[in-house]
Design a protein that fits this description.
It is a single chain. This protein is 33% helix and 24% strand. The chain is built from 15 helices and 20 strands. Strands 5-10-7-11-4-3-9-8 form an 8-stranded mixed sheet. Helix 5 packs antiparallel against helix 6 and helix 7 packs antiparallel against helix 8. It starts with 8 loop residues before the first strand and ends in a 6-residue tail after the last helix.
Length: 403
């Protein structure tokens, strides 16, 4: 893969109250809380009333007022995150920089399908602002990458630090030493990257690249990305639960579901390693061999928690959902409590509770060329938005040739 240093647009002051999670996991209530801070990045990434001109106007005003400023030299941003999981502290390190993602390159690999409407929504916002407002999330399989990043920041103090409400502590470093930058670039030259988060933004950037020419084409040739090691113990992969509208009655489809799955009622939620159907009661659903045949799964990588079993077999084939239904009649959440509460409250009809991913299984499936349904994986900790923006005017002031 090919990444380059850049001159990001950054907040002049500290980052408390300015960052947010990625927009696709922000609820309406959470959006309101974030926007209570006058300079939170969501005022741009989620513009008022969805009007693109509001995003452009806010961005321009913040630049004029000095809220945002262009970093003074070419850099890579190193982000070190600490979280507590299961009573132990773990740390994950990665970089934020533009990565070459033009369609001709085959070294940035998507693992999920996209919703066309979501791609277009992101494309319009990036085109209007001439900026990439959030990094996509990439992983690489190399074992030396994390060690090289740790060595690069060993003698540095973080330029900015902030803590997220969920307890993730973030330290931000701006690496400007040309030799260190080149060492990091060279360590990734032979690596392929797998997209963890940001499939819609990646496709939107690629579409803008194909639609552009000249200097604009040079800009959209690269996508701002966070890159970390897939082998890191602190890179965690959860499942994303499917919560289905009351318009669909699960009882009408149970006979067909039992043709493909062994269905067993459970005494409580004990299905952390398997798919669970919740309709007021918990039911484990274990796929029969015919279920894997129905989704075209290779014999080598049959995984009982495969999201294709739910999205493609149950929701599409058995229940007859359309692509539009999958985006409008299904709520996707990584929070198991929310997925259950939606049903208990009567707001939704039933939920499919998905297990945590086994990382080695995920890697094997992606290496096998599998393209999973939309919203199949939840990589965490998430990468906060607002640490940096990548804007088209930065390529005119950068000292680096993008080619």
């Amino acid at each position: 893969m090919n990444l380059i240093p850049f001159r990001p647009l950054v907040y002049r002051g500290d980052l408390e109250g300015t960052t947010s999670p990625p927009v696709d996991i922000i609820s309406q209530d959470h959006e309101a809380r974030l926007k209570s801070s006058p300079f939170n990045i969501t005022h741009i990434t989620m513009p008022r009333h969805g009007i693109l001109e509001n995003a452009l106007g806010t961005l321009a005003q913040w630049r004029k007022d000095g809220v945002l400023e262009t970093f003074g030299s070419d850099c890579l941003i190193i982000l070190d995150q600490e979280i507590h999981v299961g009573g132990r502290r773990i740390s994950r390190i990665g970089i934020i920089s533009p990565v070459e993602t033009s369609p001709e390159r085959k070294d940035v690999l998507a693992h999920e399908e996209t919703f066309p409407w979501a791609v277009e929504e992101r494309r319009k916002l990036m085109e209007k602002t001439s900026c990439q407002l959030e990094p996509i999330f990439l992983t690489v399989n190399g074992t030396s990458f994390e060690r090289i990043l740790r060595a690069a920041v060993r003698q540095m103090s973080p330029a900015k630090t902030f803590q997220e409400p969920d307890g993730v502590a973030n330290s931000v470093y701006f690496l400007t030493d040309p030799r260190s930058i080149e060492s990091i670039r060279q360590s990734l030259q032979r690596e392929n990257a797998v997209v963890a988060d940001g499939h819609h933004r990646l496709q939107a950037t690629r579409n803008l690249y194909l639609e552009s020419n000249g200097e604009n084409r040079d800009f959209w040739k690269f996508t701002m990305a966070y890159v970390t090691s897939l082998q890191s113990d602190s890179l965690l992969i959860g499942g994303i639960h499917r919560v289905v509208s009351r318009e669909f009655e699960i009882s009408a489809f149970m006979e067909s579901i039992r043709e493909y799955f062994d269905v067993r009622e459970m005494n409580g939620d004990h299905g952390q390693e398997s798919i669970v159907l919740y309709d007021g009661k918990y039911h484990s659903i274990s796929p029969k061999p015919i279920a894997f045949d129905a989704i075209g799964c290779s014999k080598k990588y049959k995984y009982a928690g495969d999201p294709s079993l739910v999205s493609n077999l149950i929701l599409r084939q058995i229940m007859g959902m359309t692509q539009k239904d999958l985006s409008t009649k299904v709520l996707y959440t990584h929070n198991r409590v929310i997925a259950v509460d939606e049903v208990d409250s009567g707001r939704s009809g039933f939920s499919f509770l998905m297990p945590e991913w086994n990382k080695s299984v995920f890697i094997s499936m992606i290496e096998d060329g599998r393209l999973l349904p939309q919203k199949s994986t939840y990589f965490y900790p998430k990468v906060p938005s607002g640490i940096a923006l990548y804007c088209s005017d930065s390529i005119r002031i950068s000292g680096r040739n993008l080619q």
